[in-house]
Design brief:
It is built from twelve helices and no strands. Helix 2 runs antiparallel to helix 3, helix 6 runs antiparallel to helix 7 and helix 6 runs parallel beside helix 8. The two termini are about 60 Å apart. The N terminus is likely disordered.
Length: about 375
Amino acid sequence: MLETQTKVLSIVPCKDYPHLSKEQKVFNTLIKKIDDKRNHLAAWQEIIPAYQKQFTNDYLPLVEASLKVQIELVHFLDRASDKKGLTSNERRMLHGLISRMAGDLAEERNDEELKKIYNKHSGSDFDEEKSASLENMKSMLEDLIGIDLGDDLDMSNPEEILKRAQARTHERQTQFEAERLEYEERQAKRKKTSKQIAKESRQQAEAEQTSQSIRELYRKLVSALHPDREPDPQERERKTLLMQRINQAYDKKNLLLLLELQLELEHIDQTTINNITSNRLKHYSKILKEQLDELGREIFVTEDMFKSQFGFSPFDRLKPATLMRNLATDIVSVQHEIRGLKNDLLALKDIKNLKSWLKDMRRRQKMDYFDDCSF
């Protein structure tokens, strides 16, 4: 690819003007913030495919293997709970341990055998508890969004509940928007005050100035670069690639990228940048602030989609630079977990080891209890 790196754009002090003005400092600050956010977004866009590949190829198969061993352990403990030689306390511990494990796994797999094991050791009914839990979720959602979700909702499907909540919320927002537009139409029919007229005039002038500034930069670049006027094939290809970047920048109203391309192509130099007028800088800064906000929204959406796809909490603070290292740690952790579970399965076949294991579990539970109390 013949594309080159864009040069860093900033206003620098010079011999004639050793101190930057307020407008120049604001301009430089915005450029720096945009550059930081662009790098942050690029880091996300680069890491996501690599993370997805390792997550799918290495992590998910291990999680599946771990679940299978856990299910095998639950079935084994279920059978062991009926054996002779266990005290009433040990059986009680087994009931609690098995019901917790079987309940979690049944939630994960919707496995009827696991549900039966849960019911046997918990003295409760898995499906009834889940139904009650989903009904509670529905009530909480209704209280939160202030909307009745209806009685025809399939309470066994959490995704359906959330979809219904989103649909009803959208309906309410649509109604609110229609009412707002109707109100604005009524207001527009009223006679406008001089302040309103002046404000609308300023906004229109600013919008036109924004469009004009970006259009001027675009026209200068297109005029100098148009590939159809280039006889040399290699140079025509280079200009075609540059034109693609220019068109993308213009479509997105990306002032900074257009300025950077001017600098890269040596259509402007540092002196030109240093001598941008105060009024022009104020106008440029307004456009750059909008660009900065747009980059922030794009980063938020990218992070939010990543968290949703890979099971992170929306409140987790993630850094692209540490994602692969953390995933590698998670992979090692699951590998250790699988080895530990398999070792437990082999060892617990001996009733003496099972009793010792339960004793150790009881000791650890007590330690956890006292640790919690210490807070």
